[in-house]
Every structure is written in structure tokens, then in C-alpha cells.
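Quick start: read one record
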Amino acid sequence: MNQLEKIVAPVKDELKTLEKRIDFILRENVFKEKFTGTFLNKGKKLRPIFLFLLARALGYEDNDIVDYGIIVELLHNASLVHDDIIDHSSKRRGESTFNALYGNNIAVLLGDLLFLFSNKLAIEKRKFEILDVIVEKNENLLIGEIEEGLNAGNVSLTEDEYMKIIKNKTASLFELVGEISCLLTNKIDSDCNAIKKMSSLIGLSFQIIDDILDYTSEAKKVGKPVMNDLKEKTLTLPIIYAINKDHSLKEKVEKFFSDVSNDALLYEIRDRVVELGGLKYAKKKALEMMKQTRDSMFIIPPSVYKDSLLFLVAFMEKRSF
């Protein structure tokens, strides 16, 4: 049993049901031929796994938890379709992206359709307190995407601005998991605040580690292009830290942004980020957040689900894909 299988073990039935139902949703619609055989059902599904484990750990026993997992996963996949268009990415999870297959115009509409599938299921649940949260996190996610786009090429982006962007863009769906779990289990406000903070920290650290992997991984391993953030003129924490340590690096980045096909300069910048400790700093920040996450779990009673949540945090700390 590998580490991910160990994490999933207590909720493997829920995950299998989710995968079957998402596959059904993708096959039983008017554009089914556009969705089948794509990356959509190939990911790690960390967000629904996190939801299943957290809700169960807090005492929620109803099988409709799978519905909420589908809502979260479809939202995530819709955002990835749009991400790939914005980033001009041709690969995702080792498969061709929607924009590579069908062009940007059709891809953006297919992404919109995934958002619609998610929101339609959320409305059908008729739990309007949860629906309010889903709409709010939808909005946060899109705000984060827009903020990132508006800051493309901004070599003066600060760490605080970066954190604000990833809190909206990535942490919002992890926060959604925490809030859904709280609402389903009727937790008191103080417990919910701790759970929401824990969920947000997981999302923030997940994105920081993802940004580190953009520097350190091989494309084959992560299933998408590497060093892609700089090619898309997006500054992430490693290079923000490095520029603050050596302001001359800003000029090199500006020069690269004027010609993003200059691979020699790209890898010179990467090496300088490593030399200046950008990756170490980012990893330290992510690990600090993970420690805070573990410390926040004191409110969750002991169970196999809590054990798997702790395994999940450890997996995210060490992940290489």
C-alpha cells in the first residue's frame, strides 16, 4: 500500500463512488465526446479526499457527502481548464489540455460547462447555507485568477500580494471543504473558525509547494510543463524572495519577459533563485503552515479519519508531483 492509498483507505468507497459518478456526468451530456478520454478524471482528487476525511472525522455519516465531493472536484477541474487556456498549456496530468484539443474558444466554454455542472448539483441539494458558501468560494477563485492575470509581468509583486492571490486562487476550494464540513456537522463558531483556518493553511501550503515543483520537477513526473510560471510572466514565492535578496535579478527577469523563448536566460534565472535560497525559503514557509495545520487538528477527535488527515498533511509536505 503506497502513501496515497493509506490516506484514502478509510474513504475508499466514497472515492470510488465519486469517480463513477463524475465519469457518468462527463459521459451523459450533449458534449460527452469532448470530455471523455481527457485529464478530468485522472487527478489525485485531494480536495474531495480532504472533504471525505474531514467531514467523517467531524462525525458526518450521510452518504450524500459524495455529492459535495463532486461539487468541489468539478469546480477544481473547471478552474484547471481555464488555467490551461490562460497559461497556454498543452499538457495536464499527462494528457492534452482542452485548449490544445479544441482551441481556446471551445475550451473556455467547456470549462464554463463544468462550472455549471457543479453549481447545478449544489442547487439541487437545496441546502442554501452551503450554497452561499459555494458561490462565495466560486467568486474568490475567479478573483484570484483575475488578480494573477492582472499581475502578469509585475516584477515588483510583493510576498503579501502573492499570498492574497493564492489565498483566493487555490486556498478558496480547501476553505470550501472546511466550511462544508462545519455546516454539515453543525459545529460551533469557534470550532469552525479553527477548521477554516486549518483548511486555508493546507491550500496555501499546497500552492507554495506546487510553485516549488515548477522549479524542481521533470515534466514527465508532474504531467505538465515545468518552469512554466516564468514563461507565463507569473512571479511566485521563490523568485519574489530571490529578487528581494538581489535586486539585479529583477532586471534579468524583465529581460526574460521581453523574450520568453530565451531558455538560456530562463535557466540562468532558475539557478540564481536556487543560489539565493528562494526554494528553501518557500519550502520553510510551506512547512510552517503545515505545522500550524497539524496544531489546529486538536479540535478533531481521534479516529482513523483524523489519522488519515495527518497522513495527508505529511504527503503534501513531501509530494513530488
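The two ends are 18 Å apart (CA to CA).
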